[in-house]
Automatic annotation (TrEMBL):
This is glycerophosphodiester phosphodiesterase. Keywords: Glycerol metabolism, Hydrolase, Signal. Residues 38-335, 372-536 form the GP-PDE domain. CDD domains: GDPD_SHV3_repeat_1. Gene3D superfamilies: Phosphatidylinositol (PI) phosphodiesterase. It comes from Artemisia annua.
Length: 536
């Protein structure tokens, strides 16, 4: 908890200097339907850190959001019709129920597909009082698992007097078990401020549309994957998307996965669709789901979730009306601190880093301007395969002070930049005609490898890079880098060898017996040396 608070404080500090720079912002209003700042919707509270729908998740989300966040609750109904907040129809997914009621799992059809698990319809709320929540994504910390109880939606509304968002994912299933979501939402909205009710089922929203027409609660149609079938109309979500006029007859907004707006291919961002503009034209608000800081997202954002959020709300053409996030502090900071900072959106990340650097120097009580060099690691290797021309160009345009080159030698003596001496690590050599060139050097690594010194430069150039299966990236040679690095940018080359080693390799590869141990020992025992190559 201490660590979290520290992080939080730093985050707020980072926010402050930028907030002061208000005069730098353009006066562009938000391009949301209402013109207001987009909403932050906290999925199950701060579910990126704590078990989804736990009191600590909701409490923390409320504490750290700079502006109001709406608390999202996935409603499930128990046998005795208690509405609880739980992220999945299968209680086995995010709770300790599999340990508590070992022999009470069942198999039911859900939208025609048999699912095995623990279903809320088989348990009373009293039964669930001894069941505790846990993280349902296995890459998240299990630290808070098994401590927090399942809460009723009513309790969540009481914990958090701010607005709630109820998501009704499976009305058809509950109807088959004689439980009414309609009755539940009508009853809870009498005592709690429910701002939005969403569902991926057309008939459910239609069944409550007239009831809510004159109320403050808005209805939102949730789109699932394009080729999935909507269970009550038997149309795919993709075909329903073409009929927004129809959606507008029973909902005032839509909730869509990120890719509906910014499609990705091989994790590279494609041009945006016109969905937001089309929906706004119909008078529909647009909310976007699937924002998580800890899963891969498009390389174009350089792993910076702030720039991802900003691409949805702060671009030249549109802004979505809200984002559904597992880490609500990030969009909250993005909207309140980093938005509308001018036309240089691609410079945003750099601005953030520079501010952080400045902040670091303030924190360490340095009065002088921080002298911190930014050194790339294999170029912008987070955005493109490391040591490729694209990666180096991006590193230079991102403002790196020094670009680096881990030097390897080819069999014809060309020094090239590659993050590993073993081509198997960084290229698709295994699927190439050179896959028979593997050899074993226990001094280098255990097992076989296909080493740079076994192939010529022109052979290595013909290999594909592993990321982005359909892309071909040019590998850089150290001489090619010199063209790229301007006088401002320095090139820093490292090799596991000095020039003596290079010639040793050279003579090694020209000998017929490359395994000759004397030759190889000399090769690996050289201390690591860094070569500084100067360019003008
Ligand atoms: C939830 O449970 C279902 C059925 O057991 C399973 O198919 C699904 O992958 C689970 N989801 C998660 C997020 O674990
Ligand atoms: C489940 O196990 C409990 C005891 O652990 C037992 O009392 C109960 O009868 C079992 N139920 C079924 C359906 O097997
Ligand atoms: C849904 O549509 C598919 C083909 O589009 C059809 O085969 C199926 O029978 C339909 N199901 C219902 C319940 O209407
Ligand atoms: C939109 O959907 C409604 C209801 O399913 C249908 O009557 C109408 O023909 C559809 N319009 C278009 C353009 O597909
Ligand atoms: C994302 O990056 C790729 C690779 O540089 C580029 O081709 C694409 O146009 C970028 N996408 C957007 C939307 O800028
Ligand atoms: C905005 O619209 C223009 C014209 O349609 C297009 O060229 C540009 O790529 C769009 N920008 C974004 C961020 O979608
Ligand atoms: C954008 O960045 C360029 C170069 O970094 C700078 O010259 C220009 O003034 C900036 N424009 C705005 C609107 O900040
Ligand atoms: C590897 O395979 C290529 C053709 O695919 C062949 O020309 C070459 O002689 C082979 N090399 C060895 C060492 O077997």
């Amino acid at each position: 908890m201490h660590k979290l608070r520290w992080l939080l404080n730093v985050l707020l500090l980072v926010c402050t200097p930028l907030a002061f720079a208000d005069h730098q912002r353009s006066s562009t209003p938000w391009q949301t339907l209402s013109g207001d700042r987009p909403l932050v919707i906290a999925r199950g509270g701060f579910s990126g850190l704590f078990p989804d729908s736990s009191s600590i998740a909701y409490g923390f989300a409320k504490e750290v959001s700079i502006s109001n966040a709406i608390m999202w609750c996935d409603v499930q109904l128990t046998k005795d019709a208690a509405g609880v907040c739980f992220p999945d129809l299968n209680l086995g997914n995010a709770s300790t129920i599999d340990q508590v009621y070992k022999n009470r799992s069942k198999t039911y059809p859900v939208n025609g597909v048999p699912i095995h698990g623990w279903f809320p319809v088989d348990f009373s709320f009293h039964d669930l009082e001894i069941v505790f929540l846990k993280q349902n994504l296995n890459f998240r910390a299990p630290y808070y698992d098994g401590t927090y109880p399942i809460l009723t939606a009513n309790k969540v509304g009481k914990l958090n007097p701010r607005q709630m968002w109820l998501n009704i994912q499976h009305d058809v299933f509950y109807s088959q078990h004689y439980l009414s979501m309609r009755n539940f939402v009508i009853s809870i909205t009498k005592s709690r401020h429910v701002k939005y009710i969403s569902s991926p089922e057309v008939d459910f929203l239609k069944s409550i549309a007239t009831k809510f027409r004159s109320r403050a609660t808005k209805l939102v149609f949730r789109f699932l994957e394009v080729d999935q079938t909507e269970p009550t109309t038997n149309q795919t979500y993709g075909s329903l998307l073409k009929n927004l006029t129809y959606i507008k007859t029973f909902a005032s907004g839509v909730l869509v996965p990120k890719s509906y707006i910014w499609p990705v291919e091989d994790l590279y961002l494609q041009p945006s669709t016109s969905l937001v503009l089309d929906a706004h034209k119909e008078g529909l608000e647009v909310f976007t789901s699937d924002f998580m800081n800890d899963v891969p997202f498009a390389y174009n954002y350089s792993y910076d979730p702030v720039s991802e959020y900003l691409s949805f709300v702060d671009n030249a053409n549109f802004s979505v009306d809200g984002v559904l996030s597992d880490n609500p502090v990030t969009p909250s900071a993005a909207f309140d601190c980093y938005s509308h900072m001018g036309a240089n959106l691609s410079q945003q990340a750099l601005t953030t880093y520079k501010t952080t650097l400045k902040l670091t120097s303030i924190l360490s009580f340095e009065t002088e301007k921080a002298k911190v060099l930014i050194i790339s690691s294999e170029g912008a290797s987070g955005d493109f395969p490391g040591c490729t021309d694209l990666a180096y160009k991006k590193a230079v345009s991102d403002g790196a002070d020094i670009i680096d080159c881990p030097v390897q030698m080819t069999s014809d003596g060309v020094p090239i930049c590659l993050g590993s001496i073993n081509l198997l690590d960084r290229t698709m050599v295994a699927n190439s005609e050179f896959s028979n060139l593997s050899s074993s050097f226990p001094e280098l690594q255990s097992g076989n490898g296909i080493y740079t010194f076994s192939l010529t430069w022109s052979q290595i150039k013909s290999l594909r890079q592993p990321t982005g299966a359909n892309h071909y990236f040019h590998q850089s040679t150290s001489s090619r880098l010199s063209k790229l690095s301007s006088s401002r940018v320095q090139l820093h080359a490292s090799a596991e060898t000095d020039s003596h080693y290079t010639t040793t390799i050279d003579s090694c590869i020209t000998r017929s017996n490359i395994r000759e141990s004397g030759c190889y020992k000399e090769f690996t025992l050289q201390p690591i040396e860094y070569l500084k190559i100067k360019y003008t």
